[in-house]
């Protein structure tokens, strides 16, 4: 219903803010990550998600579209509601969450308040590949000095291919390091 709100920040706390836009004051629930982006601002744009419940309409705001998209993906997981999704995104940045999912690091997720082993495993299972697709393959949170085979591996995993299968395909290509990332991905897809 609301894609974003832009206006003057009337009140702000680490979990809630009031935003005046067009003569209307909006109460917006935020994450700590969003708060860190807006803490020193007087005006801002927040990308919003409206949750309509039987007893209330609750508005959530995010500093960027990536965080909002991740929030929405978390909401689609059985057992993860808006409060839990907000706690996850307050405890972990989207990059940290992406890294935990990419490396299947359940321990990082279990450190978040309210996330047990089963929920952590469900998050890893259901978001594997989804969170990673939000970003361009060149900006993944893998180490900054990737080799061409590592970049190709990340891209293949983003395409939904299991990590083991992608690694085997790349190993079968003899001149992998002399190819561009795009050429290596194409050859690996042919080997699969």
From TrEMBL:
Entry keyword annotation includes Lipid biosynthesis: no
Assembly and interaction partners: Homotetramer. Forms an RuvA(8)-RuvB(12)-Holliday junction (HJ) complex. HJ DNA is sandwiched between 2 RuvA tetramers; dsDNA enters through RuvA and exits via RuvB. An RuvB hexamer assembles on each DNA strand where it exits the tetramer. Each RuvB hexamer is contacted by two RuvA subunits (via domain III) on 2 adjacent RuvB subunits; this complex drives branch migration. In the full resolvosome a probable DNA-RuvA(4)-RuvB(12)-RuvC(2) complex forms which resolves the HJ.
SMART domains referenced in this protein's UniProt entry, alphabetically: HhH1
InterPro entries: DNA_helicase_Holl-junc_RuvA_I (IPR013849), Hlx-hairpin-Hlx_DNA-bd_motif (IPR003583), NA-bd_OB-fold (IPR012340), RuvA (IPR000085), RuvA_2-like (IPR010994), RuvA_C (IPR011114), RuvA_C_sf (IPR036267)
Taxonomy of the source species: Bacteria, Pseudomonadati, Bacteroidota, Chitinophagia, Chitinophagales
Region span, Domain III: 150-192
Domain Helix-hairpin-helix DNA-binding motif class: 72-91, 107-126
Cellular component, GO, one term: cytoplasm
Functional description taken from the UniProt entry: The RuvA-RuvB-RuvC complex processes Holliday junction (HJ) DNA during genetic recombination and DNA repair, while the RuvA-RuvB complex plays an important role in the rescue of blocked DNA replication forks via replication fork reversal (RFR). RuvA specifically binds to HJ cruciform DNA, conferring on it an open structure. The RuvB hexamer acts as an ATP-dependent pump, pulling dsDNA into and through the RuvAB complex. HJ branch migration allows RuvC to scan DNA until it finds its consensus sequence, where it cleaves and resolves the cruciform DNA.
SUPFAM superfamilies from the UniProt entry: DNA helicase RuvA subunit, C-terminal domain, Nucleic acid-binding proteins, RuvA domain 2-like
Molecular function GO labels: ATP binding; four-way junction DNA binding; four-way junction helicase activity
Keywords (A to Z) from UniProt: Cytoplasm, DNA damage, DNA recombination, DNA repair, DNA-binding
Domain observations: Has three domains with a flexible linker between the domains II and III and assumes an 'L' shape. Domain III is highly mobile and contacts RuvB.
Species assigned in the record: Flavipsychrobacter stenotrophus
Main localisation: cytoplasm
Compartment list: Cytoplasm
Family, per entry: Belongs to the RuvA family.
Protein name per UniProt: Holliday junction branch migration complex subunit RuvA
Pfam families associated with the record: HHH_5, RuvA_C, RuvA_N
One Gene Ontology biological process: DNA repair
């Amino acid at each position: 219903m609301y894609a974003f709100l832009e206006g003057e920040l009337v009140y702000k706390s680490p979990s809630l803010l009031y935003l005046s836009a067009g003569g209307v004051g909006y109460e917006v629930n935020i994450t700590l990550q969003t708060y860190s982006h807006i803490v020193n601002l007087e005006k801002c744009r927040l990308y919003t998600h409206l949750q309509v419940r039987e007893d209330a309409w609750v508005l959530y705001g995010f500093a960027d579209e990536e965080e909002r998209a991740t929030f929405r993906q978390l909401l689609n997981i059985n057992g993860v509601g808006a409060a839990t999704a907000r706690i996850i995104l307050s405890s972990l940045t989207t990059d940290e969450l992406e890294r935990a999912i990419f490396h299947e690091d359940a321990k990082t997720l279990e450190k978040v308040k309210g996330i047990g082993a089963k929920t952590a495993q469900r998050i890893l299972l259901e978001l594997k590949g989804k969170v990673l697709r939000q970003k361009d393959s060149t900006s993944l949170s893998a180490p900054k000095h990737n080799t061409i085979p590592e970049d190709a591996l990340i891209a293949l995993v983003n395409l939904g291919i299991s990590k083991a299968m992608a690694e085997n395909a790349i190993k079968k290509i003899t001149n992998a390091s002399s190819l561009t990332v795009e050429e290596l991905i194409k050859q690996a897809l042919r080997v699969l």
